Amino acid sequence: MSDDSATVDSATVDSANVSNVANVANVANVVADVARIADSTNTANVVNTANTAGSTNFVYSANTDDSAAAVPSANVGTLAGFTIPRLGMGTMALAIEGRPASRDQAIETIHAALDAGVRYLDTAWSYYLPSRPGTGEPEDMGYGEYLVRDALATWHGPSEAKDEVLVATKTGWLRTLDGQGRYGWQADARPETMIANAKESARRLGVDALDLLYSHCNDPQVPYEDQMGALKQLVDEGVAKAVGISRIGNEDIETAHRILGPSLVAVQNQFSPVHRDPEHTMETCERFGLAFVCWSPLGGFLDPFNEHLFDRFREVAERHDCSYQRVTLAWELARYGRLFTIPSARNPREIRDSFQATELTLTKDELAYLDGNA
Ligand SMILES: NC(=O)c1ccc[n+]([C@@H]2O[C@H](COP(=O)([O-])OP(=O)(O)OC[C@H]3O[C@@H](n4cnc5c(N)ncnc54)[C@H](OP(=O)(O)O)[C@@H]3O)[C@@H](O)[C@H]2O)c1
Fold first, then answer.
1. Total domain count for the chain?
2. The CATH number of the domain where 265 resides is what?
3. Ligand 1 geometric centre to CA of 141 (Å)
4. Range of the domain at 154
5. Where is the NADP-dependent oxidoreductase domain (predicted)?
6. Residues at CB less than 6 angstroms from ligand 1
7. Neighbouring residues of 25: CB distance < 8 A, sequence distance ≥ 6
8. Which of 113, 209, 263, 288 has a 20 to 30 Å separation from 104 between CA atoms?
């Protein structure tokens, strides 16, 4: 998470498309940073890259000696001005129902992600649990965002590496608890709520401007144009450097693109073997040059799903002697050069395992088999 305005980048671009001074400055800074790290510490981390679609000529280096795996260039991408591995971490499972009882374990899990090389942390205004029936008491609010803030503040990685971390949050959704003890979600994307909550998110995360702010959903009670108008106002006021949209269809992407122009950099939609983007929103992202960020990339943990949908992933995993979760994430990364995947984890082991998907190359035949086309 960086406060440096030189990293502000209004579009999702690869280096071949770099067209504005901020982008050039950012890529140059990043390359200089990497050269410095390589000089001073770990030359083995430096990889020469080919310029593949959606990735960059950039060279990424992990920051600790024990996690020194280099991320192949095809699995590095640019999002909201950050050139980072395309495998980040979702922090929802650390903040809502089922979250670790120990806050220290949650912080340790985020530290393990950063040590492994994760540079994208995904949170939301709504990642909290109401302690009593209703939408939450003041002491409930902000659990997830404070967790991310505190994990970054206490991480012992190199200080410059903290500026490489893209923190994304979301606005326009709340949690609920009913009288039977069941948790739920409730859209509230009235422009005034979206704006007030986004400003609160910035305060909670301890930044002047959010790196990336998503609208969490399309609230059916509010015209989508008005919801996008709220995002635009937040960009114009400098509260968010870049914006994204979530849980939406193709028509919404077109509306958002029309209203937000180059400030719109990402779509966060469900994608996994359980939900294969039936509306083909990934293709619309490609058409507009937007990043596609997969939510619940391993099928999620809140709702049950058919485990057999992972059978082929288990078979391929056996051949690679790794977890089927790692194969699933590698299959996702191979789909689109501007795809980012953000698995949750509730302990360090899971995120270390998942991050290794950035180094797993699947053959064309394996990808076709996993697509169900074999
Ligand atoms: N925009 C939206 O509306 C929206 C909606 C949902 C999620 N999201 C985002 O997407 C992120 C990920 O989605 P998700 O939390 O629904 O679930 P997910 O990433 O699909 O993961 C589901 C579960 O898989 C298990 N797991 C993860 N890595 C593993 C590994 N390497 N080996 C074995 N098991 C592993 C964990 O469960 P156990 O701890 O039980 O092992 C994890 O909670 C969220 O954190 C959030 O940031 C966004």
1. 1
2. 3.20.20.100
3. 21
4. 5-371
5. 86-371
6. 90-93, 122, 216, 246-247, 268, 295-301, 323, 325, 342-346, 350, 353-354
7. 6
8. 209
